[in-house]
Design goal:
The protein is mostly beta strands and about 200 residues long. Helices cover about 0% and strands about 50% of the residues. The protein has no helices and 15 strands. It has strands spanning about 1-5, 20-25, 30-35, 50-55, 60-65, 75-80, 85-90, 105-110, 115-120, 130-135, 140-150, 160-165, 170-175, 185-190, 195-200. Strands 4-5-6-7 form a 4-stranded antiparallel sheet, with no helix packed on it. It is globular. It starts with a strand and ends with a strand. The relative contact order is 0.11.
Length: about 200
């Protein structure tokens, strides 16, 4: 098995450029450091490793302060495992991502589907946009959807954390008020056979 640990404040490639350490479990049960990963194009204060997701041979890393699409617009890196070595295979951006949105603040991966949040969304500043990417067999990653919480309020602060399994994505919303001030909620998006997503709220 594999384990990935983000170090967004790592300075090897620049001030807080970030890194990810990848460990492999040995027959003895001990975890051994196998690689230290960096972005191909690191930048100061990119915070590569702020979020990580791992599924099979795919590792996803958020760099929420990457500046390629504007100051602190953010980016998501994809690494693939080949022959026991992890190597960067893609760098993803949400279609509407722009400066200040911090895309990649939360990431998750399950099989051939990746989810990532833009923490400061386009609908309400403090509620995330959720982007979903998919990849056909031997194909490249393409954006499948941009999702937003239909019940969002300006102070919900969703998008720090994600979980994903199969066709189901769970998004945090810690400051939402369904059961009283700051009681919080979880937002569940579920992919349907036609490719659309339905939303459910768990409180």
């Amino acid at each position: 098995g594999w384990l990935a640990v983000g170090a967004p404040g790592d300075d090897d490639k620049g001030s807080s450029a970030g890194a990810v350490r990848v460990y492999q479990r040995q027959a003895s049960g001990a975890w051994q450091l196998k690689q230290k990963l960096y972005a191909k194009t690191p930048g100061n204060y990119d915070n590569f490793g702020r979020s990580v997701g791992l599924s099979g041979n795919t590792l996803v890393v958020g760099a929420h302060s990457d500046d390629d699409r504007g100051f602190n617009a953010g980016a998501v890196y994809v690494f693939a495992l080949t022959g026991g070595v992890w190597a960067q295979s893609a760098k993803l951006f949400g279609s509407a991502v722009q400066g200040g949105q911090q895309f990649g603040r939360g990431v998750a991966v399950s099989g051939d589907r990746i989810a990532a949040t833009a923490y400061y969304g386009t609908k309400l500043k403090n509620t995330a946009d959720l982007y979903v990417f998919t990849r056909p067999p031997k194909g490249t990653w393409k954006q499948e959807a941009m999702l937003q919480d239909a019940t969002a309020n300006p102070h919900d602060f969703s998008g720090r954390f994600l979980a994903m399994s199969g066709d189901r994505i769970v998004l945090d919303s810690p400051n939402a008020d369904p059961k009283g001030y700051g009681s919080g909620k979880a937002i569940v998006f579920e992919r349907q056979p036609d490719g659309s997503y339905t939303q459910h709220v768990v409180v």
